[in-house]
Amino acid sequence: MKEDGKNNYTIFEPSPNNSGIERLTLENSIRKALRLEEFVLYYQPQIDTLTGKIIGTEALVRWNHPTLGLVPPAKFIPIAEETGLIVPLGEWVLRTACIQNQIWKEKGYAPMSVSVNLSSRQFSKQNLVKTITEILHETHIDPQYLELEITESMTMNVEVAIEVLGKLKELGIQICIDDFGTGYSNLYYLKLFSIDRLKIDQSFVRDIMTDSNDADIVATIIAMAHNLGIDVIAEGVETKEQLDFLRSQNCHEVQGFYYHRPLPVEEIEQLLMNTMEI
Ligand code: C2E
Ligand code: CA
Ligand code: CA
Ligand code: CA
Whose CA is nearest to atom 22 of ligand 1? Predict the structure, then answer.
């Protein structure tokens, strides 16, 4: 175990010289971590600012490494994607998030949705629909409370996107376009794909107060989403000023450090307990 820890430390410091070996080591570590169940989900609340209530959470994966501690997704998701390990990891995330959401429902907390990030490797997989169908059956989650976050790049192949998203919609789950505005934006396709929600990327939100272009972009995305009957949520909200701007543009669903960071299960439950109406 000690040796492992040492090796693992070096693999998180990418160097161009031995990246092949590092990748292989990291790949093996991820495989092992999946087997040993070292991954853990944090949940970041999504707030309806009109009511102040938590309407959902986004599940965000971390690696609870025995020697390195909590490793953020940026350090392992790219390799998991490259190696295809994102498929079993993503399935674990989906199943765990659904089980957790069901537990919260059974504990009597007000209904909330859970949003799960999907990678393009999962999206193009033939059996995504089958996997999700199984998870819905196993966990008994009401499909309307499961939201998948996809990115615009996944909809590049219009035919595949229409087919997969159509099947997912038939299951009754929600679809959100994540990081909206950073990729291939075409609002016409949004309608075609029957998207339920757009998530305005945090890079636009960050500079809302200082960059009038970003403020205009955000205002335009919100207005167009409303016109198309698509919900809109802003992520990366850190300040009261950003929140006030979003509210002035009629964007009332937000996620960000201003309210809460991603939290472990116990802390979310504490929060839900405090806001429960008895
Ligand atoms: P993302 O989907 O865009 O997730 C939002 C990221 O922004 C999260 O980082 C979150 O902690 C962070 N964030 C939330 N509010 C704020 C804020 O107010 N200010 C700032 N500066 N940041 C904020 P995190 O958890 O490190 O995740 C990073 C990325 O890793 C995610 O970006 C997502 O692309 C990926 N990821 C995380 N979990 C999963 C997963 O289960 N599957 C897949 N495929 N990707 C995942
Ligand atoms: Ca996301
Ligand atoms: Ca995002
Ligand atoms: Ca992002």
Answer: 236
Extended beta strands in the chain, E state:
39-48, 53-65, 69-71, 113-117, 146-151, 174-180, 197-200, 231-235, 253-255
**Would the ipTM clear 0.90, i.e. be above it?**
yes
Give the closest residue (by CA) to ligand 1 atom 43. Answer: 117
Atom of ligand 1 nearest to the CA of 201: 3
Expressed in angstroms and rounded, the spacing between residue 10 Cα and the centre of ligand 4 is 26
Q: Is the pTM of the predicted complex or chain greater than 0.90?
A: yes
Q: What is the pLDDT of residues 208-221, one digit of tens each?
A: 999 999 999 999 99
How many Å lie between the centroid of ligand 2 and the Cα of residue 58? 7
Q: Is the dihedral of CA 34, 264, 13, 179 positive or negative?
A: positive
Helix axes 19-35, 2-11, angle to 10 degrees: 130
